[in-house]
Amino acid sequence: MNRLGTLVFAGVAIAAGAYWLTLPSQGNLPANPLVGSAEAQQAEIDTSSIVEMVQGAEDAPVEVIEYASYTCPHCAAFHEGPYKKLKADFIDTGKVRFIYREVYFDRYGLWASMVARCAGPEKFFGISDLIYKGQAEWSRAGGPAEIAEELRKIGRLAGIENDKLEACLGDATKAQTLVAWYQEHATRDDINSTPSFMINGKKVENQAYDGFKALIEAELGN
């Protein structure tokens, strides 16, 4: 999926939160993705509060970063297939430290991210699996209200209590910070499609698992 850059304005209202969200679609990434006024576009956003979602040994010799969107079908296919092999062969064996970074093409991907992060790092990857498995259903549930409700159902299925779920989805400050965080990394690593990967700092496009395995093994010196 190749959709980063041009500004698209989408009105967002979840729970008590209501704000205007600016998200990229194609071309160059804008400086600040969430705006409520002209001044907000120029404001610096502190993204240090955003937690990196990581699997694998801290001292693993190979670092793999995935950039993915919850609304990207190719990302769902990766998580249903190659990711499971990557986890078994390299992450669980201490050879790869895996970092997952969300890309926000639209408000629905952002909402999904806020649900995935709602229960903390311990449940993040499990909830992400549920979101990807159900992508074809929740992403086509209808309008914004229907899609938001389907994402709530996934959160409840993962054991998140209603009050906490609503607080997560209604956190406009967190939404703003997440989008700024995404753009910082996407700009720095020149990410313009999903899924995209960084293997020990080198950008890698999506490919069959055998290709990933060969690249990782080369980094391991095999």
Automatic annotation (TrEMBL):
It comes from the Bacteria. Residues 23-159 form the Thioredoxin domain. Pfam families: Thioredoxin_4 (PF13462). Coiled coil: none annotated. May be required for disulfide bond formation in some proteins. This is DsbA family protein. It comes from Ruegeria pomeroyi.
